[in-house]
Amino acid sequence: MDDTPAGPPAVVVHPRRRGRTALLIGAAALLGVSAGTAVGYGIQAERPPTRLPALSQAELVYPAKALPADKAPAPLPASQDRLVRTGGDLRKLVMKRPAGWSDDRSAGAGALDDGWMSVDAYAHEFNQEGSQLEYLLESDVRRVAGAAWKKGAYRQANVRLVQFRSGAIAEASSYAEGQRSYMPWRKDGAGNEGDPVKGSGSGRYYLYPVERKAGYMPSYRARAVMHRGDIMVEINVFDTEPIGKKDIRTLAERQLELL
Fold first, then answer.
1. Interior angle at CA 192, CA 191 and CA 193, nearest 5
2. Burial, 97: exposed, middle or buried (Cβ in 10 Å; 0-12, 13-18, 19+)?
3. Which of 211, 215, 216 is CA-nearest to residue 242?
């Protein structure tokens, strides 16, 4: 049995009845609108027709024939032609090993094969490997080149050049922006906005907070993400000791100079 006390009876609201005065006013308004419309049509009918603008446009001017060879503009030099510069051996655009570093041939660097890296091996470096691989393939990735170095007892660094096929969409720029977008807030990001890489446009470098785990040495990381043309650049530095901003910034600026 429902013991809830009954509330006040619902109030039924009826629409307001319109009286004779309202009907008369409505009829007069309708008549005024009709009369105004008729007058408007009459005025328009008395006016002369207005000529519409021509639909055709001025003809585009093309040369009657190709320019002679001595007057044709010279092709861009290889130093300025991006397609020539990045269409060759991509490994030549990976920065040279810095002084004081040596090649890293450890298991973690084994994904590189003579400076090349397969797309699935590159995707394996990310937490969500399957999603990363799917994204790269859908974005028409072309190839990946890189290098891996070590310095001292524990410092390691790697460079990745991810090149996309040229198309209507700037995939390298989009990919780099996507990587930077989660760096300030996601758990596997750096937790900060980073600092700009000079001369890169939107490129940035980041220092991660130190990771500490019982029974293990502290882990430090720095990362740089930028792009130039159809190439996205990623540089990582790992160590058990703090990494300075200058360390990652210098590597990023040197790599950018080659692109």
1. 140
2. middle
3. 211
